[in-house]
Amino acid sequence: MGNKNSLALLSLFVLVLGCYCFERGWSVTVSYDHRALVIDGKRRVLQSGSIHYPRTTPEVWPEIIRKSKEGGLDVIETYVFWNYHEPVRGQYYFEGRFDLVRFVKTVQQAGLLVHLRIGPYACAEWNYGGFPMWLHFIPGIQFRTTNDPFKEEMKRFLEKIVSLMKEEKLFASQGGPVILAQVENEYGNVEWAYGIGGEVYVKWAAETAVNLNTTVPWVMCAQADAPDPIINTCNGFYCDQFTPNSPSKPKLWTENYSGWFLSFGYAVPYRPVEDLAFAVARFFEYGGTFQNYYMYFGGSNFGRTAGGPFIATSYDYDAPIDEYGFLRQPKWGHLRDLHKAIKQCEEYLISSDPTQQKLGTNLEAHIYYKSSNDCAAFLANYDSRSDANVTFNGNSYFLPAWSVSILPDCKNVIFNTAKVVSQRSAGDLPFARSASTVNEIYLESSTWSWYNEEVGIWGNNSFTKPGLVEQINTTKDSSDFLWYTTSIYVKAGETKDVFLIIESLGHAALVFVNKRPVGFGYGFHDNASFLFKEKISLNEGNNTLDILSMMIGVQELKSELSLRITDILGNHRYVTAIGRNTDKFFYDLQNYGPWFDVQGAGLYAVSLVDFMSNGKNDLSSGTWTYQVGLKGEYLGLEKVSLANSSLWTQTNSLPVNKTLIWYKGSFVAPEGKGPLALNLTSLGKGQAWVNGQSIGRYWPAYLSPTEGCTDDCDYRGTYDSFKCLKKCGQPAQTLYHVPRSWVHPGENLLVLHEELGGDPSKITVVTVTGQEICSTVSEDDPPPADSWKPNLELVSQTPEVRLTCEQGWRIASINFASFGTPQGNCGAFSPGHCHADVLDIVQKACIGQKGCSIPISAANLGDPCPGIRKRLAVNALCSD
Ligand SMILES: *[C@@H]1O[C@H](CO)[C@@H](O)[C@H](O)[C@H]1NC(C)=O
Ligand SMILES: *[C@@H]1O[C@H](CO)[C@@H](O)[C@H](O)[C@H]1NC(C)=O
Ligand SMILES: *[C@@H]1O[C@H](CO)[C@@H](O)[C@H](O)[C@H]1NC(C)=O
Ligand SMILES: *[C@@H]1O[C@H](CO)[C@@H](O)[C@H](O)[C@H]1NC(C)=O
Ligand SMILES: *[C@@H]1O[C@H](CO)[C@@H](O)[C@H](O)[C@H]1NC(C)=O
Ligand SMILES: *[C@@H]1O[C@H](CO)[C@@H](O)[C@H](O)[C@H]1NC(C)=O
Ligand SMILES: *[C@@H]1O[C@H](CO)[C@@H](O)[C@H](O)[C@H]1NC(C)=O
Ligand SMILES: *[C@@H]1O[C@H](CO)[C@@H](O)[C@H](O)[C@H]1NC(C)=O
Ligand SMILES: *[C@@H]1O[C@H](CO)[C@@H](O)[C@H](O)[C@H]1NC(C)=O
Ligand SMILES: CC(=O)N[C@H]1CO[C@H](CO)[C@@H](O)[C@@H]1O
After folding, report:
1. Which of 612, 629, 646 is the endpoint of a domain?
2. CB atoms within 10 A of CB 99
3. Is residue 23 among the annotated active site residues?
4. What does DSSP assign to residue 493?
5. Ligand 3 centroid to 375 CA: how many Å?
6. Is residue 255 annotated as a catalytic residue, yes or no?
7. Mean pLDDT value across the chain
8. What is the per-residue pLDDT across 722-737, written as a single tens digit (0 to 9) for each?
9. Are 239 and 165 in a shared domain?
10. What's 550's domain CATH number?
């Protein structure tokens, strides 16, 4: 006894003291060596998670950060979103959801650290990747290469953010929580396309960052040539095989995808926690010491912040904390157990490089020594099919396929990535009816009124030009919408039935002939361009053609962009286009010079084809009149101040299934503190506002393909973003998050801009007031990783069923409790052959509590069948 115990105590003390320092504002140095980040002279093993501050509201930052800390995170990572911080050049904005300083301080108050990814390029499925649109209009600018106007702006923004952090004393050397910064972002993936200009730019970016004297290390992710002292880090689904570009740098993983983002028109991706835990354990097994979940909490793309094209409003990401701030179980709990198990090994991980030992085919161990006979080990079976028994250190261990076991004393397994013992939610979503107490209310029908949007030109700021214009250049992204209008004259005796053919770079278009809707065309995330072809009937004489071209987020800069680049030596390089109408695009590029930073959007060809004679009438180079935005947007119909305006019409019957219409209604929010959701299943496509705040774009009419889903995805084998999908043939998103702080007692205003046609009377406001949770743990499962004591034999320590309710809720009832050989899955347990009814015991321990734990032992639960391995299964209901 004694020795190891006091060591453990000592390290715990140091840890607590470390947090204390950050909270109290004591100066701390941060450096690194080949093993780890070194904070205040000590190497640290750190778990990090991404939370993007504008993707939720400041009111819930503390709770999400608390849940991150309880989940075992040490560091919160965020990008900085330039386009919202500097909406107009030189005019900065740091309020509300964009209050970066408040966010960093909230993390600090929780005792956690911060990794600030200033970029300024963010990517992040964020509009234009985080670049302000005005940047694009600076004469001669070329993004992310050695271009003076770009470098000047980038440097100015980096300086702005660094000085803001310094003024608020937020760097670790000033007593703040920021221990790491990032310049650029995943540039290594596209650098090749920029030739020598790219290489020069990387050196410039590194030098510029280092000269900012943040006193904390800088990283460049996915950047193999990051110059010293910048640390190059890995992004990806797995990073165990990654090595930094210098033996003096530690192995850091800055983006480990907890799931994947959602796009309108696509099925919902998810990543099984067994695979995610496997990837993380493998990383630490292979010498990693810092790992970041992208995302730990994803949140929502409110307003028009979603990137493009077609990124959905939900940025849930299948993250450990879901879009609404609820714990996603068992993901959150299983990863917490993993973090605790790794934390038990920290002293070993920072003491040495791992020693590899082969244990068989696709079987290996990595051992970390503190001294010659004191070690921690990771045992891995990376075979995607076969389970295995291995012998290690004289003992035998069972290793399920695609799993890692963690042995903090080289002997006892306290965690296996494939063995999930943490609590589960009985259903998948927080609002799943089967598993939650859902409170659903309809909006009051008497309050609905509407406004018909005008078709075509509505304002005196329209303009007329020959030919078709590119949309982003024209709208400067001030609106998703651009009207393209022209007239078609049909002489007496000419054919009146023709095909209207529209070719667009994206993203969608609503087409009107003589002010009547004739169709809707749209692309998709992987290929935004589309061809619209519809048979139309024209009148003799003059006809109007009004095409409303729509954007669904401005494309981020991606490696697959088709680029024509002039490098600094004057060489032109062409980069192969993927998912693009190449001819047109190269044409555009040649005309637009440095325009490679946007993919372009809007119409590029419109023609009429006589389907009898096949004669073609090309309207593309004719005269077009343009109008940016919608009249309703111009009027500001979403504003609370217009709620009683006479612009709104009210009659007894509400027009439904109508294109281009605004609706206004009101609702009284259900009581409580929890988040709300709007169920917009009955609508088509548009945008919604609650009390003047945009909750984002909605598009339930866009169904995902019917094929490719697996409800029960096999976690074994290499994961990619297409492997595990659900909700095939359904809308990507039907529920839309309304933060609680955006509603107030009494009537709340809901405004919708519906583009395709829907029925707003079927909208409901949904809250959850309870959740079904469950857990099953066996006698021979390890004890909870945080209670494990290195000096005791594992067998003498007791596993436990642990249940915890969400904040504010308590355990209201126990619906099932059996000790023996219970059957079935979580939420649908049934007693097995061997069954002790332990309902009384579990009820006594749990009812009325926020959480409870029940030790799994015969002494506690009785023994219904001696000699048989038993488990405890419990199903409980939490409610407010
Ligand atoms: C960098 O910052 C540190 C701490 O704030 C300061 O002591 C040092 O003088 C600065 N160095 C330069 C070159 O500005
Ligand atoms: C591992 O060993 C156990 C106990 O000896 C045995 O039941 C099991 O079949 C073995 N599994 C494999 C995959 O060899
Ligand atoms: C029309 O122009 C006037 C004067 O420039 C301006 O005040 C008004 O807002 C414009 N109206 C519309 C609908 O564009
Ligand atoms: C057709 O209508 C447009 C728009 O009103 C007008 O500009 C054009 O002169 C008309 N053409 C003819 C031939 O009447
Ligand atoms: C993208 O869509 C357009 C229009 O449907 C089509 O012509 C083009 O071939 C597509 N490109 C790719 C790469 O699929
Ligand atoms: C962008 O639009 C402006 C005004 O509409 C025009 O002057 C300019 O030439 C356009 N640029 C490109 C590259 O199309
Ligand atoms: C609109 O009218 C209602 C009922 O008369 C009133 O309660 C509400 O305050 C008004 N809202 C605004 C924004 O003026
Ligand atoms: C809505 O209108 C479209 C055509 O305008 C029609 O095909 C569809 O059946 C209508 N849906 C409902 C629910 O009325
Ligand atoms: C949303 O509404 C649709 C009907 O419009 C319904 O089928 C669905 O169950 C609702 N979803 C939730 C989570 O309330
Ligand atoms: C650096 C890296 O590994 N990036 C990977 C991240 O995940 C995407 C999606 O599968 C891969 O395409 C990238 O290669």
Report:
1. 629
2. 17
3. no
4. T
5. 76
6. yes
7. 89
8. 899 999 999 999 999 9
9. yes
10. 2.60.120.260
